[in-house]
Every structure is written in structure tokens, then in C-alpha cells.
Automatic annotation (TrEMBL):
One of several proteins that assist in the late maturation steps of the functional core of the 30S ribosomal subunit. Helps release RbfA from mature subunits. May play a role in the assembly of ribosomal proteins into the subunit. Circularly permuted GTPase that catalyzes slow GTP hydrolysis, GTPase activity is stimulated by the 30S ribosomal subunit. The keyword Transferase does not apply. This is Small ribosomal subunit biogenesis GTPase RsgA. It comes from Rhodococcus daqingensis. The gene is rsgA. InterPro entries: P-loop_NTPase, Ribosome_biogen_GTPase_RsgA, RsgA_GTPase_dom. HAMAP family: GTPase_RsgA. PANTHER family: SMALL RIBOSOMAL SUBUNIT BIOGENESIS GTPASE RSGA. Its cofactor is Zn(2+). GTP binds at residues 165-168, 218-226. Residues 351-366 have a biased composition (Basic and acidic residues).
């Protein structure tokens, strides 16, 4: 990730504003960050406080063509002052990262274009905390679920950080568990945290240095709310202190989804991002399973299915115990899901699959195999 020169003196710096966004701001407009979106209108945080604003005609038109163009929480937007003295949302500045649900082609990056079906759940998220409880209903942390959510995090363009939560409840050797988790997500930081003991919480804050924006993904009961409340220093679901970049904000009780933290940095917390499952996932899967992808590249046959073909490097690694059965199965499962997801949205692939099935059905009719 590029880290543009940071202008600490700008009143919006605490909300994550930086030179790379500033370079995209249309002349004569005012920057603001979207804290919440509600049917054609948004609550935004600007240097002079919070505004409730409507979308301009250009934004409405773009969104009608492709919902991915709709402003979403975390977006940086350009406001223009209308003659009657109120602001209007004139443009969404290019997103650096985005969580996009469905409908986006393989080639589009960070939600910049779609096929008319996609929805952006959160934008400009720098850090994706993946929370997985150390113990879950008597079971140890679920590695498969961690792999899936980390793949999703890579896919968004953000940096994943895995948190083994509720570490105080771990009935096994915690260091061993953290090592197992780390082995499942090469290149990703893994930390044990406990909101109850406060263990690891200070470390979490360091990821938000430089006014970064984070989300917390994870299953129900992983302790996401507890962590967000701990970082916010209060119960964010009840009242929120609306504070503009310069600290001169007003106090309101509006529930916002973009939460500036007292220690610096921001958290985006929405029902959609909490329920994030496995959406479009292609690059992300490749990154989480970079080790297997590399092995697969060494197989004798380029189209090796790793199911017993001669010269298969993947199965050799399995035999040599460099690779576990669990991890190979997890890779196959996520790849199947990723292909299926892509096939739903990639019209060309969809057509190819239809043709394939047509051929198969034709074959079946010819051979009489579909008859009882
Ligand atoms: N022992 C222990 N319990 C915790 C910890 N963090 C959270 N809990 C408890 O775990 C339960 C679930 O925590 P939540 O923060 O509501 O979990 P969540 O991930 O937000 O769950 P959903 O809202 O269902 O998505 C609550 O009863 C918390 O008090 C921790 O570090 N240690
Ligand atoms: Zn192979």
C-alpha cells in the first residue's frame, strides 16, 4: 500500500484525509467523509462539522447505471455549495479500497466499475481485523473460516490482521494456537487479544496510527462489538460524539457507522460489513494459498487437478507433510466457491458453462443415460 505524504495540519487528517485524496478533489468543492448513507442522502463529516446532504444529479445518474457508484460509508466525497446555501454531494472520490458484494467483474478493481448488480459495503478501509475466538462453543479457532475472511480482506484491497479473540478463554496452549493460525495465513500478522483482560488491545491501536480506518469481521460471538466498544472507550451503539476534524464538532445521538476513535483512527461498523460472507473472491484466494499455488505451478501438467496425476507437486508436498490435508481441502473448497461466485457475475464464463451443460445434456440424451 502506498503511504502518501501526510499533512497533519489539515483539519480532516484525523478522519483519514491525505494528499492522495486531496489530489482527486474537484476544484471549488469541499471534501467530506461519508459516515452513513440513507436512501439518496448521507450524513457526512466535513471540516466544519456534520452535514446531512442529498446526492447531486451526476451521482444519481451514475448510481442508476451502476449501484457501485452509490456513495457508501467510508467514501471521501466532494461537496458543492448550492445557491440556496446548502451542500450537495457532487462526486465520490476514487476509492482506495472497497468491500463489494456481488455483481463485479473479475477485472474491475476496488469497486470502480461493475455490471450493474454490485453493492459497495464499505470504502477506504485500510485495516481488516479478522476476529476468530480462541474457543468457540468448546471448539478451537476455525482455521477455514479465518482463511476465507482473510481472502476477502485481500480482495477488498485492505491489509488483513488476524485476531484470536477471547484469549482468556483458551483452554489450550495459546502460543501453539496462534502459530497454527499464522501458518494458515502466510504473510499476515496474527495476535491474541482479550477485551476482558485488555491483552493485545494496545497493540491493535498501533495499526490505526496515521488515522487509518479499520473494520472488524468475524462470526457472531467473536467479540467484535466488545472490541469496538473497547477501542471507542464507550458504547458506540448508544450515543456517538460527533466530532469534526478540528474537534469543534457538535454532540448528537445519531447512530453513525464511521466511528472516530479517541486514540486516533476510525472504525467502520455496519450490519452489512458484519455479515460479510464470501463474495467475489479470486485474487484473495490466490494470496492466502500462495504456497499451494506455487506448488501447483511445479506440477508436470499445467492443468493438473492434483488428484493423482503423475508428477503432481501438490500431492508430493502432502506426502512429505509440508502441506496438510485440511489446508488442501480448504483451498479446493474456496476455489470452487470463488469460481461459482465469479460465474454468477462473469457473463462470458456463464455462457461457457451453459454451453458446457448443453453439450453434456446432448451427450446424455444421445447415450440414453438420462432415461430411467
Ligand atoms: N471471556 C471473554 N469474553 C468476551 C471477550 N470479548 C467478548 N466477550 C463476550 O462474548 C460475547 C459476545 O461478544 P460480542 O462482542 O457481542 O460478539 P460479536 O462478535 O459482536 O457478536 P455479534 O454481535 O453476534 O456479531 C459477549 O458476552 C461478550 O461479553 C473476551 O475477550 N473474553
Ligand atoms: Zn498437481
Amino acid at each position: 500500500m502506498t503511504s502518501p505524504a501526510f499533512n497533519h495540519s489539515h483539519p480532516l487528517s484525523p478522519l483519514g484525509w491525505n494528499d492522495s485524496f486531496a489530489a482527486e478533489l474537484p476544484e471549488g468543492s469541499m471534501p467530506a467523509r461519508v459516515a452513513r448513507v440513507d436512501r439518496g442522502a448521507a450524513d457526512v463529516l466535513a471540516a466544519d462539522g456534520q452535514h446531512h446532504i442529498t446526492f447531486g444529479s451526476r451521482v444519481r445518474k451514475a448510481a442508476a447505471d451502476d449501484p457501485v457508484a452509490l456513495p457508501c460509508v467510508g467514501d471521501w466525497v466532494a461537496l458543492t455549495l448550492l445557491a440556496e446555501g446548502r451542500y450537495e454531494l457532487e462526486a465520490v472520490l476514487p476509492r482506495r479500497t472497497a468491500f463489494v458484494r456481488g455483481g463485479v467483474g473479475r477485472t474491475s478493481r476496488a469497486g470502480l466499475s461493475g455490471d450493474g448488480q454490485g453493492q459497495v459495503l464499505a470504502a477506504n478501509v485500510d485495516i481488516v481485523f479478522v476476529a476468530e475466538p480462541s474457543m468457540h462453543a468448546g471448539d478451537l479457532a476455525d482455521l477455514g473460516r479465518i482463511e476465507r475472511l482473510v481472502a476477502l480482506a485481500w480482495e477488498s484491497g485492505g491489509q488483513p490482521v488476524v485476531l484470536v479473540t477471547k484469549s482468556d478463554l483458551c483452554e489450550h496452549e495459546l502460543d501453539g494456537l496462534v502459530a497454527d493460525v499464522a501458518a494458515a495465513v502466510p504473510g499476515v500478522d496474527v495476535h491474541a487479544v482479550s477485551a476482558h483482560d485488555g491483552d493485545g488491545v494496545a497493540l491493535l491501536r498501533t495499526y490505526l496510527d496515521g488515522s487509518r480506518t479499520a473494520v472488524v469481521l468475524g462470526p457472531s460471538g467473536a467479540g467484535k462489538s466488545t472490541l469496538v466498544n473497547t477501542l471507542a472507550g464507550h458504547d458506540v451503539m448508544d450515543t456517538a460524539l460527533v466530532r469534526a476534524g478540528d474537534g469543534r464538532g457538535r454532540h448528537t445521538t445519531v447512530h453513525r457507522e464511521l466511528i472516530p476513535l479517541p486514540g486516533g483512527g476510525l472504525i467502520i461498523d455496519t450490519p452489512g460489513i458484519r455479515r460479510v460472507g464470501l463474495y467475489e473472491m479470486t485474487d484473495g484466494v490466490d494470496l492466502v494459498f500462495a504456497d499451494i499455488e506455487e506448488l501447483a505451478g511445479q506440477c508436470r501438467f499445467v492443468d493438473c487437478g492434483h488428484r493423482g496425476e503423475p508428477g503432481c507437486a501438490v500431492l508430493a508436498a502432502l506426502e512429505g507433510e509440508e502441506l496438510t490435508e485440511r489446508r488442501l481441502a480448504s483451498w479446493r473448497k474456496l476455489q470452487r466457491e470463488a469460481d461459482w461466485m465469479a460465474s454468477r457475475t462473469d457473463a462470458r464464463l456463464r455462457k461457457a458453462q451453459q454451453d458446457k451443460w448443453k453439450t453434456i445434456h446432448k451427450e446424455m440424451r444421445r447415450s440414453g443415460r438420462n432415461r430411467p
